[in-house]
Design the sequence.
């Protein structure tokens, strides 16, 4: 039986019309054969918007002759990878926005301290199955493999995957195939594969926040399958990650650049404002204003700024200066990075606890702000980091720490408890921090 005939017998009339129109027997055969081999994959595609609009397997998987990952398959030249560039043939705007976003750079991590840890302390298989599964990897070509993709890097759907055609990312990271359902991407779970855990617990913070509470109580009111999804008009029960970071408001369209509404970067040892941060903050506050009044939103941002400034001034700036001094004084000469305790403690202060404190304050997760955040930062700073630095017995390092301990924010360690409590009751101690909330 020819493939075309088999196809005609198996598929619905509307689909065969699509294939006949494009005139390729090979194109029709994709569906027929893979329906037998992978009925789940076929069904996901068949019920998707792509299936309904006649976007076939070959429309996405076809390849050009020069493509590094092209292979001959059942009489057709195809590629297993369907990159942002391929999707961009029909969804140009989304592909451009993804390309311009921070997500597109997530695969460029090999020079980071995180990557050093993964490779030196762990080992390559840990980096492949761990880091690179979230961040993405440079896809390697192996012509001895049937699909031309090296088994060391395929499968991989990391958010910043570096593709053989030069494009970055994988749309499947948020739009799982083969349904490519936008309702799925609107839910917090779409982000939760990556945005969780000890160093960036956005998912856990969301779940504990009132916003998460309202979402899980009212999922049936969220109108997730609606074509249009404008906050305040098409749904109002709760915001999801997508609502705040990507989706439309009455005045803003959907954006695939997740950095478009972010004013601080909360990832590095010391937080700084992003370029053009005021406009980005306005974009986010416009989302809030669908459900809250301006004064309420402004109050939230002051509290958030206060927490970031506190983390910076009280802990991050001095800890970083002391760590730099420790390195400059040569007391660790000849030691490999992270072959000592102090670097691990400094690392956990900013990369784990310090991020949790900042992320909790940004997204209304009080438990992360304090118990998983500042509480841990303070404990490690005073009772591990400073004593370890002092233990080197270096006069310059010790003079720095002495001076720090004399500052108003840190002097509590050398004062009688009764005096400190009296200063808290009178509001005197709080004044030390009042500038951190910003000017009225
Ligand atoms: C006669 C059955 C048959 C037909 C027709 C067919 N395939 Fe396949 N496909 C397979 C088999 C079997 C494999 C496993 C690799 C192999 O043996 O070639 C496969 C593998 C693939 C893969 C690679 C999966 C991976 O993990 O790398 C893709 C993508 C794919 N097919 C898409 C298509 C497309 C697109 C078409 C239409 C142009 C098509 N197939 C036509 C049977 C078929
Ligand atoms: C809208 C575009 C699109 C359409 C239509 C599409 N695919 Fe895919 N397919 C993808 C993407 C994206 C991936 C993941 C590849 C990647 O990570 O780049 C994929 C992966 C695959 C894989 C390998 C992964 C796995 O789970 O085994 C196979 C096989 C495959 N597709 C077959 C098909 C077949 C058969 C059809 C038609 C029934 C089809 N595809 C239709 C985009 C598409
Ligand atoms: C040949 C053109 C074509 C290609 C290639 C293509 N799409 Fe589509 N896509 C469409 C059409 C047509 C629709 C349905 C009409 C619409 O929503 O615009 C659609 C709809 C969608 C939707 C909305 C689905 C929903 O639930 O409403 C998403 C998400 C999507 N595509 C993602 C992708 C991704 C990701 C890729 C690449 C893996 C891709 N598309 C490749 C044409 C294409
Ligand atoms: C569960 C998914 C996941 C894993 C596993 C993971 N990361 Fe990340 N990583 C993320 C997310 C999400 C962010 C962004 C967090 C944020 O913005 O707060 C991030 C941030 C980073 C950053 C900061 C980027 C910047 O520009 O500031 C680096 C570097 C990094 N990760 C490297 C690694 C390395 C190396 C590994 C393995 C040792 C790893 N990550 C493991 C998800 C992951
Ligand atoms: C970070 C997650 C994420 C990634 C990565 C992502 N999308 Fe989306 N996408 C979404 C969300 C969320 C929506 C729903 C927005 C809404 O309607 O509120 C969406 C909606 C869409 C739609 C429906 C039309 C629209 O703009 O609302 C298309 C088409 C689409 N995405 C294509 C793509 C393509 C193509 C890529 C890769 C270049 C991609 N997406 C990558 C999260 C993502
Ligand atoms: C497959 C993993 C993955 C998924 C899924 C994912 N992200 Fe990310 N996201 C990352 C990584 C990794 C980074 C850090 C980028 C870097 O290291 O360059 C990041 C960074 C971000 C940033 C910081 C942007 C900036 O400019 O500072 C935001 C906001 C964000 N993601 C939101 C989302 C939202 C919202 C979703 C779901 C709709 C989502 N992400 C889905 C991995 C992911
Ligand atoms: C109510 C709105 C809202 C919701 C819901 C929300 N966020 Fe955020 N998110 C924010 C705000 C506000 C900030 C801080 C913005 C700034 O810096 O100005 C932020 C910051 C971030 C950052 C940047 C962190 C960094 O290290 O720089 C990431 C990543 C992020 N959110 C991801 C998520 C994810 C994933 C979810 C869902 C699990 C989510 N957000 C839910 C409002 C929200
Ligand atoms: C879709 C509607 C919606 C959007 C958009 C929204 N919120 Fe909310 N928000 C709620 C609901 C519902 C509650 C719970 C009401 C309550 O506290 O009784 C809430 C509660 C809050 C709370 C109180 C938290 C607590 O623990 O009591 C703050 C603060 C807040 N939102 C700030 C924001 C900020 C800032 C933004 C924008 C970045 C935002 N919200 C976006 C609906 C929304």
Sequence:
């Amino acid at each position: 039986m020819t493939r075309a005939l088999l196809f005609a017998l198996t598929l619905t009339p509307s689909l065969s019309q699509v294939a006949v129109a494009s005139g390729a027997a090979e194109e029709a055969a994709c569906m027929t054969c893979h329906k037998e081999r992978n009925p789940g994959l076929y069904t996901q595609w068949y019920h998707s918007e792509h299936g309904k609009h006649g976007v076939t397997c070959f429309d996405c998987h076809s390849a050009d002759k020069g493509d590094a990952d092209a292979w001959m398959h059942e009489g057709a030249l195809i590629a297993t990878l369907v990159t942002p560039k391929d999707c961009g043939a029909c969804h140009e705007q989304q592909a451009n926005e993804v390309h311009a976003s921070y997500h597109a750079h997530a695969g460029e991590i090999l020079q980071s301290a995180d990557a050093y840890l993964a490779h030196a302390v762990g080992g390559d298989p840990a980096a492949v199955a761990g880091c690179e599964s979230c961040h993405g990897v440079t896809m390697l070509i192996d012509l001895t493999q049937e699909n031309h993709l090296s088994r060391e890097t395929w499968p991989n759907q990391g958010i910043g995957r570096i593709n053989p055609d030069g494009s970055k990312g994988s749309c499947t990271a948020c739009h799982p195939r083969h349904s490519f359902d936008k309702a799925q991407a609107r839910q917090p779970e779409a982000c939760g594969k990556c945005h969780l855990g000890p160093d960036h617990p956005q998912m856990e913070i969301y779940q504990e926040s009132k916003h998460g509470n309202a979402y899980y109580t009212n999922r049936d009111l969220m109108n997730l399958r609606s074509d249009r999804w404008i906050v305040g008009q098409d749904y109002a029960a709760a915001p999801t990650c997508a609502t705040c970071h990507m989706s439309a408001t009455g005045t803003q369209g959907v954006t695939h650049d997740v950095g478009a509404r972010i004013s601080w970067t909360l990832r590095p040892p010391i937080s700084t404002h992003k370029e053009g941060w005021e406009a980005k903050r306005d974009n986010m506050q416009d989302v809030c204003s669908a459900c809250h009044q301006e004064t309420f939103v402004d109050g939230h941002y002051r509290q958030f700024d206060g927490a970031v400034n506190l983390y910076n001034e009280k802990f991050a700036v001095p800890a970083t200066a002391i760590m730099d001094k420790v390195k400059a004084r040569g007391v660790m000469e000849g030691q490999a990075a992270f072959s000592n305790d102090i670097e691990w403690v400094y690392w956990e202060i900013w990369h784990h606890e310090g991020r949790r404190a900042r992320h909790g304050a940004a997204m209304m997760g009080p438990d992360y702000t304090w118990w998983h955040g500042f509480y841990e930062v303070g404990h490690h700073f005073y009772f591990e980091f400073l004593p370890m630095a002092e233990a080197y017995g270096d006069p310059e390092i010790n003079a720095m720490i002495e001076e720090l301990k004399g500052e108003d924010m840190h002097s509590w360690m050398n004062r009688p408890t009764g005096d400190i409590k009296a200063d808290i009751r009178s509001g005197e101690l709080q004044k030390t921090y009042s500038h951190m909330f910003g000017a009225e």
Remarks:
- Residues 1-23 have pLDDT under 50 and may be disordered.
- The CA atoms of residues 228 and 234 lie 7 Å apart.
